[in-house]
């Protein structure tokens, strides 16, 4: 076995149907007494439910989380948290809501309990991001890592099938890149492979019946594993491209990840035998990229970057930015590799 360094991030997880009811106990375990609940406007009802559960420890709902974590929202939310005397934050929602909590925690040290309702995985990482005047700043800081995460699959039943599928593939992308990361290790690879296998089996079940309890439970369990390996390793070409595509053309986060994933898998896995073996096993196919693409087509994932609004003349700009920014990757990437990969993802041709 190769040399490796394994460093676990602290994590405390409660998992299971109706585990939301254990939230007051989690708040107590933190030693906190007054929690502000953060949600998006679309999930304000969930916020009220959570606030109600907390009884006297509920400091109300702040339902203004938004995509890309605008700095103005962070400032207003931090001031609101101080006004209501919050000594903890509860982020109930997807990556955008967790992102708001993290941005507040960065400057306030308020501890976070996350209640994830998508499969994005932000709750397992010390990565924060904020946007001001269209420029997104990101960083890593253990202060923003949620102290506790409550995974309650019943809260994901209302996540529309289309978002469930692309969000699940967003999680799979974390695991794929963790398998060939420079800081991969055997334990993380076990988690990543299990995350991929469980998620790929769960998504068709959810598409068949959005209330399928096993599908929802397996997908959220997989999201935990995929988020954990995202938080513990260094991502490569796939995350770099999706970051540039999302930032440059304002493309939807999870759909962009889902569409690009099979093309990066086809490009990278051949240079990483261990990751290839793990993905062959997880997909049950000797061509994991083709298997993922086939699954995506059967689950109605948009077929191409063109289909989600990327302009054709944008490829050169993405290549320029990707060439300018160093990132780790198991295979060297030339400008012409990037053009080929992006053209294929743009048109939705078969990954090679
Ligand atoms: P999101 O949080 O933007 O949510 C999308 C929409 O779905 C929102 O309107 C939300 O209210 C709604 N929604 C969420 N859960 C729902 C549910 N169960 N039922 C009904 N509606 C629900 O989307 P996301 O994909 O979870 O997060 C994407 C963002 O997270 C991106 O900005 C991305 O950069 C960030 N992210 C950060 C990290 C990190 O480590 N920092 C990791 C992954 C993603």
TrEMBL record:
Residues 10-153 form the Alcohol dehydrogenase iron-type/glycerol dehydrogenase GldA domain. This is Maleylacetate reductase. Residues 165-346 form the Fe-containing alcohol dehydrogenase-like C-terminal domain. CDD domains: MAR. Keywords: NAD, Oxidoreductase. Its EC number is 1.3.1.32. GO terms for molecular function: maleylacetate reductase activity.
């Amino acid at each position: 076995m190769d040399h490796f360094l394994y460093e676990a991030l602290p994590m405390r997880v409660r998992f299971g149907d109706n585990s939301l009811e254990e939230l007051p106990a989690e708040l107590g375990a933190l030693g906190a007494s007054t929690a502000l609940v953060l949600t998006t406007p679309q999930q304000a009802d969930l916020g009220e439910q959570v606030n109600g559960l907390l009884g006297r420890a509920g400091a109300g709902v702040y339902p203004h989380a938004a995509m890309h974590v605008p700095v103005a929202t962070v400032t207003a939310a931090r001031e609101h948290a101080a006004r209501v005397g919050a000594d903890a934050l509860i982020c109930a929602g997807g990556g955008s809501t967790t992102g708001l909590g993290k941005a507040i925690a960065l400057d306030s040290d308020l501890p976070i309990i996350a209640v994830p309702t998508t499969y994005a995985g932000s709750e397992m990482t010390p990565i924060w991001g904020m946007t001001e005047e269209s420029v997104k700043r990101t960083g890593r800081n253990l202060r923003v890592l949620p102290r506790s995460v409550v995974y309650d699959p019943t809260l994901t039943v209302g996540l529309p099938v289309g978002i469930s599928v692309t969000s699940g593939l967003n999680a799979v992308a974390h695991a794929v890149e963790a398998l060939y990361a420079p800081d991969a290790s055997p334990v993380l690879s076990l988690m990543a492979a299990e995350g991929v296998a469980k998620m790929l089996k769960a998504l068709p079940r959810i598409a068949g019946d959005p209330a399928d309890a096993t599908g929802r439970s397996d997908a959220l369990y997989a999201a935990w594993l995929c988020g954990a390996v995202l938080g513990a390793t260094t991502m490569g070409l796939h995350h770099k491209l999706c970051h540039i595509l999302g930032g440059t053309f304002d493309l939807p986060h999870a759909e962009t990840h889902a569409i690009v994933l099979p093309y990066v898998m086809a490009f990278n896995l051949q240079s990483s035998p261990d990751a290839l073996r793990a993905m062959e096993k997880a997909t049950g196919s000797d061509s994991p990229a083709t298997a993922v693409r086939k699954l995506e087509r059967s689950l109605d994932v948009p077929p191409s970057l063109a289909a989600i609004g990327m302009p054709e003349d944008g490829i050169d700009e993405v290549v320029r930015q990707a060439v300018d920014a160093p990132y780790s990757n198991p295979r060297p990437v030339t400008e012409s590799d990037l053009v080929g990969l992006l053209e294929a993802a743009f048109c939705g041709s078969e990954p090679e």
